[in-house]
Amino acid sequence: xxxxxxxxxxxxxxxxxxxxxAAPGQSGTERRSQGLKGGVYTVDQAQRGEATFxxxxxxxxxxxxxxxxxxxxxxQGRSAFELLDLIRSTMPPERPGRLPPxxxxxxxxxxxxxxxxxxxxxxxxAPAEGVGQGGAAPAAASRSTSSGVYTAAQAARGRDVYxxxxxxxxxxxxxxxxxxxxxxxxxxxxxxxxxxxxxxxMSDPGVLTDQEGAQLVAYLLxxxxxPAGPNELPTNSAELKQIGFxxxxxx
Length: 251
Hints:
- There is one protein chain.
- The chain is globular.
- It has helices spanning about 30-35, 45-55, 70-75, 80-90, 100-115, 150-165, 180-185, 190-200, 210-225, 235-240, and strands spanning about 5-10, 15-20, 145, 245.
- β1 and β2 (about 15-20) form a beta hairpin.
- The strands form two sheets. A two-stranded antiparallel ribbon has the order 1-2. The chain has a two-stranded parallel ribbon with strand order 3-4.
- The longest helix has 15 residues, at about 45-55.
- It starts with 5 loop residues before the first strand and ends in a 7-residue tail after the last strand.
- The protein is mainly alpha-helical and about 250 residues long.
């Protein structure tokens, strides 16, 4: 089954995830060219974000604050995970985190539009509920990442793949800790695996083998404090959908 293609585009000093759908047989160059015309959010999402911003944020913030040089400089080399996490953790000031997760993603979509990034046909994903506060694995999952779903050897191979194919654009710190967990915690490992397979490496998304994708996910689990176990992480969707990314055990 063909997965949707996703690539990454720098926005001034900001780095956001760019998701597009590629046609079968397209080269990496063709996919990237198409991606630049796509976007990480939809028109409707940015409009919802604007409405939220106007009603809840504009009394204290102007849209221009999110496009000026100081904003761009402060976010140089940082990720959308961190921007979502910051907004969710601090806004609105009187009660941070009170909005539905999707509403925070909508506001980020609006900020992307303010910075001139064109919309596409896929919405910017929201952080999962409760992540960073002891969030549990999804109810539909029968296993948890806290039970040891990968091997140490598999994670070691994933570290090598990360170093050779990912680290030129990412650091391990950008894929661990609260910002990362707020996006991926409470979801299934299939979602993370699918993301890795379609997003990495940024220079030519979709070239990883399933084994390399599983190795990278194993390494990301290790980075985020999940214990190793006796069996390697599988690569098929049915099994990965039964493993929930739990954050309760992460300190």
